[in-house]
Design brief:
Elements lengths: L2 H4 L15 H11 L6 E4 L3 H4 L5 E5 L2 H7 L7 E5 L12 E7 L8 H14 E10 L10 H7 L8 H16 L2 E3 H11 L3 H8 L3 H4 L11 E3 L3 H7 L4 E7 L12 E6 L1
Parallel strand pairs: 1-2, 1-4, 2-3, 4-5
Antiparallel strand pairs: 5-9, 6-7, 8-9
Helix pairs in contact: 5-11, 7-8
The structure holds S-adenosylmethionine.
Length: 260
C-alpha cells in the first residue's frame, strides 16, 4: 500500500511545508495571473482546486481523491489518472499548477517527462506555477539533524522530516524511497518519547513518519541545478521565487514559466 492511501486520514494535521497555506496559494495565483481558460491541477490539493474558476484536478490515487477533493462542480472536475499518461488534448490548458507535484514522481527522468507533458498540454502563452521542494546547495548534515532533535525545536516536525529527506537525497541520489526516511529517522532517534520531550514536537505528529512504513513510493528531491537540467525547451520566463514565510520556506521556492 502506498502511503498516499494512508495519508488522507492525517491530512488535517499537515501544515507548511507539507501543505500550502494562504500565502502560498496567493503566490500561485499571482504567478499565474488572470486566467480565462481551463487550469490543470497536478494533484487534488483542495486549496488550489478552489483558487481557480475552471479546474481539472488529476491524481492517480483514489483514496486521495475520495478524501481530499472538494467535490466536482460544473467547472471543477477530478480525473483519476497518471500525469505522465494524460490523454487531454495538446495546447488545451490556460495554466497548470501544483504543490510539490514535481517531487511526487519517482526519478529525475520522470521530472523531465512531467515538464514535457505540461508543456505539451499548455496552450501557447499558458502559464505554469508549482511549489518545489529543492535540496539546498549547502547540504543538511547528520550532526545538524541530531542537534536539532536534541533541544527545543525551532521548526515544525514536517520541516525537520524534509531536512532529513534532503540530507538522505544528498547521499543516495535525488530519488528517495520514502521508507528510507523512516528507517534513518528510527536509527537517529530510537527514543521517540525523549525526542518529543526535548523538542516539544507532539508525539502523534512524530509518529506520522510511520505512514512511510512499507510504502513503495519514491520522492525526488532535486537541487536547483537538477531541476534546471530537467527543463525541456519551449518555455520562456523561467523563474524561481520565494513562496512565503514558514518553516523551511528557503527550500520551497515557486517555479514559474510560460509556454512559448
Ligand atoms: C501533489 S503531490 C504533493 C501534496 C501537496 N503538497 C498537497 O498539499 O496536496 C501529492 C499527490 O500527487 C499524486 N501523484 C503522485 N504521482 C502522481 C502521478 N504520476 N500521477 C498522478 N498523481 C500523482 C499522489 O497520489 C498525491 O495525491
Amino acid at each position: 500500500m502506498t502511503h498516499w492511501q494512508r495519508y488522507p486520514a492525517s491530512w488535517s494535521k499537515l501544515v507548511p511545508p507539507l501543505r500550502p497555506d494562504a500565502q502560498i496559494v496567493a503566490k500561485v495565483k499571482e504567478l499565474i495571473g488572470p486566467v480565462t481558460g481551463p487550469v490543470l491541477l497536478l494533484g487534488v490539493t483542495p486549496e488550489l482546486a478552489q483558487a481557480f474558476e475552471n479546474v481539472l484536478g488529476v491524481d492517480k490515487n483514489k483514496a486521495m481523491i475520495d478524501r481530499t477533493w472538494p467535490g466536482d462542480t460544473e467547472t471543477r472536475k477530478v480525473l483519476p489518472a497518471d500525469w505522465l499518461d494524460l490523454n487531454e488534448p495538446k495546447n488545451h490548458f490556460a495554466a497548470a499548477v501544483g504543490d510539490g507535484s514535481l517531487n511526487a514522481v519517482s526519478s529525475l527522468r520522470e521530472v523531465r517527462l512531467l515538464f514535457e507533458r505540461v508543456v505539451d498540454l499548455l496552450a501557447p502563452g499558458g502559464r505554469f506555477a508549482c511549489r518545489l521542494y529543492e535540496r539546498p546547495m549547502q547540504p543538511f548534515t547528520q550532526d545538524q539533524l541530531l542537534d536539532l532533535g536534541s533541544r527545543r525545536a525551532s521548526l515544525n516536525f514536517h520541516a525537520f522530516k524534509w531536512q532529513l529527506a534532503m540530507h538522505l537525497a544528498e547521499t543516495c541520489g535525488a530519488a528517495l524511497p520514502v521508507v528510507l526516511i523512516r528507517e534513518r529517522f528510527n536509527e537517529l532517534f530510537p527514543d521517540r518519547d525523549r525526542l518529543a520531550r526535548d523538542t516539544g514536537w507532539p508525539r502523534e505528529i512524530i509518529d506520522m513518519i510511520d505512514i512511510y512504513r512499507g510504502s513503495p513510493t519514491l520522492y525526488v528531491f532535486p537541487s536547483r541545478q537538477e531541476f534546471l537540467n530537467a527543463l525541456p525547451g519551449g518555455m520562456s520566463n523561467v523563474r524561481f521565487e520565494p513562496s512565503g514565510r514558514y518553516d523551511l520556506a528557503e527550500c520551497c521556492p515557486m517555479l514559474a514559466f510560460s509556454k512559448h
